[in-house]
Amino acid sequence: MNVAIVDYGSGNLHSAAKAFERAAREAGLNETITVTADPARVAAADRIVLPGVGAFADCRRGLDAVPGMVEALTRSVREGGRPFLGICVGMQLMATRGLEHVTSEGLDWIPGDVKAIAPNDPALKIPHMGWNNLRQHRPHPLLDGISTGDDGLHAYFVHSFALEAKEPADVVATVDYGGAVTALVAKDNMAGTQFHPEKSQALGLKLIANFLRWRP
Amino acid sequence: MLKVRLIPCLDVKDGRVVKGVQFVDLVDAGDPVEAAKAYDAAGADELCFLDITASVEARGILFDVVRRTAEACFMPLTVGGGVRTVDDIRKLLLAGADKVSINTAAVANPEFVREAAEKFGSQCIVVAIDAKKVSASGEPESWEIFTHGGRKATGLDAVAFARQVAELGAGELLVTSMDRDGTKGGYDLALVRAISGAVSVPVIASGGVGNLDHLVAGIRDGHASAVLAASIFHFGTHSISEAKQHMAAAGLRVRLDPTTAPVATAG
């Protein structure tokens, strides 16, 4: 099985690839992990990962700057039903629009907008940075075997903007940060995490292994 | 609920840990990657490398250290020391650092913080603030920014500078008291509190930790979001897990996820 991690100039993907390799190895899965900027390889992959760091608009521009990439993603994920995982801004790009500094178009796979986090407690710092527990709203294969809630495992977050999904059913998990902040969205064969599974130690490696086994 | 973070910091020179890490049986106690792996397994919330390599030629070694660490540790890594240009930041991020800390270059030219944040995003730009108390006793407390390991005064007020770099786009501030650094007398809590109260971004307390109560005080009295320490961990005085248990017992919210840590051997 081939897993493509989409490289569109948004930061270092080498360590993300290493996390996927380790998760696959520990789960006894035989996966080839490829970091690629080639839409043909993305189209040919069995599973697709879209990472992203920085600002929404920059990431969208970066994605558009690779000729054929958005088309390859859309074909594989929306029409081909390949399992897809967006990470951080890669997850935010699944939304309809991003409202960070300027308004930019997302992929519109998960209806909703990406907006500045506005905690109801003014003492809370922005960015939301560090380890937080997940509040699970519904079961999802990506969270199989992962304990959530106040006594559950933690995921690593660093972000100032978050996806506000139109359909509550698309939100699998939130975190509490002066109110509920979207942490994990999923619909059909698509999922996205606001946190960084590749930086989230035990929870992260488990979630990645779940993604590699996922048969939506 | 967001947890407070405990961050061990390693001083790295020419690709080697300056004082060696003695808390656990490492194959090579001077290899930062070995030390980083041990801290990762022990449940540290993040790692920090401070590069104090003097020569430009030896900088290449640091990139290799960062790369090997990022391949082995699935936790956030901040790297600082000698970061002067956008290209320095780019190289460290591409090597696998999650955040890059800027110190002297931000003091010399605060606009550099804006440039860096616009280029790479605030989430990966940390400004390291080294400050000394300059007010006399009886006066309202004030602190001044110092560079060059605390030797060079800048005339800049630390709290005003903190506010300025946060507005320019720093995503986090690493606040070190040069009065306390190396003393084991605890953080300068008034300094940390003054800066934390002045900015909306997270603040990491640094400089002076000698015991576990100092970590607690950094959060509770300094209002920091994270606490950084070096020698108490490297020399086996305390393990990461002891520190976290202590902080939890004091009522702080810490992450106590199961770890893969081998039993720590002191000494």
Structure summary:
Chain A has 216 residues and is α/β, with parallel strands linked by helices. Chain A is built from six helices and 14 strands. In chain A, α1 packs across α6.
The second-level CATH architecture of chain B is Alpha-Beta Barrel
Q: In sequence order, what are the helices and strands of chain B, one letter per element?
A: EEHEHEHEHHEEEHEHEHEHH
Strand and helix order of chain A: EHEHEHHEHEEEEEEEEEEH
Across the major sheet of chain B, the strand order is 1-3-4-5-6-9-10-11
Low-confidence stretches of chain A: none
Total beta-strand segments of chain B: 11
Structural class of chain B: alpha/beta
Please give the number of β-strands of chain A.
14
* Helix percent band of chain A: 25-40%
Q: Tell me, rounded to a whole number, the average pLDDT of chain A.
A: 95
* CATH structural class of chain B: Alpha Beta
Percentage of β-strand residues of chain A = 25-35%
Question: Helix content range of the residues of chain B, please?
Answer: 25-40%
Report the sheet with the most strands of chain A, covering strand number, pairing sense and barrel closure. 8 strands, mixed
Number of domains of chain B: 1
Structure explained in plain terms:
The complex is a heterodimer of chains A (216) and B (267). Chain A has 216 residues and is α/β, with parallel strands linked by helices. Chain A has a single domain, classed as Rossmann fold (3-Layer(aba) Sandwich), CATH 3.40.50.880. Chain A has six helices and 14 strands. An eight-stranded mixed sheet of chain A has the order 2-1-3-4-14-13-12-9. Chain A has a four-stranded mixed sheet with strand order 6-5-7-11, covered by helices on one side. A two-stranded antiparallel sheet of chain A has the order 8-10. In chain A, β5 and β6 form a beta hairpin. Chain A is globular. The mean pLDDT of chain A is 95. Chain B has 267 residues and is an alpha/beta fold. Chain B has a single domain, classed as Aldolase class I (TIM Barrel). Chain B has ten helices and eleven strands. In chain B, α1 packs parallel to α2 and α6 packs parallel to α7. The N and C termini of chain B lie far apart (35 Å). Chains A and B meet through α1, β8, β10 and α6 of A and α2 and α3 of B. Chain A: Keywords: Amino-acid biosynthesis, Cytoplasm, Glutamine amidotransferase, Histidine biosynthesis, Hydrolase, Lyase. Chain A: One of its GO terms (cellular component) is cytoplasm. Chain A: Pathway: Amino-acid biosynthesis; L-histidine biosynthesis; L-histidine from 5-phospho-alpha-D-ribose 1-diphosphate: step 5/9. Chain A: It is found in: Cytoplasm. Chain A: This is Imidazole glycerol phosphate synthase subunit HisH.
